[in-house]
Protein: Hydroxyethylthiazole kinase
Organism: Dendrobium catenatum
Amino acid sequence: MDRQTGITATPNAPAGKIPQPSEPLLPDDQWGHRAWELLQKLRLRAPLIQCITNVVSMDLMANVLLAAGASPAMLSSIDEISDFTPGVDALCINIGTLSEDGLASMRAAAATAAAAGRPWVLDPVAVNASDFRMEACLGLLELRPAVIRGNASEILGLASARRIRNSKGVDSSHQSFDAVEAAKSLSRSSGAIVAVSGDVDYITDGHVVVGARNGDYMVQKITATGCAITALIAAFISVEPLRALEATACALSIFGVAAELGMEMAAGPASLRMHLIDSLDGLNEDVLVFFFFFFFFFGSGAILGKSLWASIFIYR
Ligand SMILES: Nc1ncnc2c1ncn2[C@@H]1O[C@H](COP(=O)(O)OP(=O)(O)O)[C@@H](O)[C@H]1O
Ligand SMILES: Cc1ncsc1CCOP(=O)(O)O
Ligand SMILES: [Mg+2]
């Protein structure tokens, strides 16, 4: 495991078989540096990210993208897609408040992005809630997303192409670990990198599995954080499209670091939302070291229990 970000690279293959990653896998000790490097690259390029998303998530998603250094655009009318989508750096599609009209826009945008060589990512929010959603997602998969990010219940359902029974809307009823095999199978069938979020985030290309351990339990108490992280993944892959597994793991890890740092200053979900955005803005390795010492001497002491902080400190 990389000490700085908590990312673990696990060749998760049957005994005796050599995993065949879609991209060369970084050695364990280079993931931390890579995450900061990609965040820096994102800030320099300020990629334009189109998001066709649910009405709950628009504000948080746009603010998370801005704080990370990307340029969000929540344009969703089907009449604008031919003009706008070919020029974006990546597209994020999220089915959270799906409608017939919305789905038509999503399909047109995904097809346009793909034709223009722009990567797009899918967030299959509440895919188990209705046949309408499941069929919509299965249709979107045919348009070849670069990355699919969902919670464990969503990935389990989508991988089996059937609604799972014990699901409860937009939140997960399963642990991320329970969906690792499903994620691998979905990745192989769709050709996409698949990320399952949870206490540990797992990211796979169908052959190897990478884990990212950053984050805070309280993040689940803020609606649309999953949606926001999917948009952040779109931003990361736009600057490193040929290394989508790496970019996806780094995006999840950086978001988790911002959540851990934000939680040091937050009193609950509402203030965490604010501090998470503040933390992401301008976050880099040096800032993190400064905050580590600040909270070490003047904070609650909770920082000592966080893998990231202890790891970063030891790493340096
Ligand atoms: N138990 C947990 N502990 C720490 N972080 C978590 C936990 N559950 C989810 N997260 C984080 O919250 C964010 C949203 O993930 P999740 O809640 O799984 O997605 P969704 O909101 O789509 O259901 C991710 O960054 C994930 O790492
Ligand atoms: C509450 C809700 N209802 C429809 S979409 C949505 C937001 C879901 O956001 P997330 O998947 O990030 O929790
Ligand atoms: Mg979600």
Observations:
- The chain has one domain: 7-252.
- Residues 7-252 form a domain with the UDP-N-acetylmuramoyl-L-alanine:D-glutamate ligase fold (CATH 3.40.1190.20).
- Residues 10-19, 307-316 have pLDDT under 50 and may be disordered.
- Strands lie at 7-10, 48-52, 71-73, 90-94, 120-123, 147-151, 193-197, 201-204, 209-212.
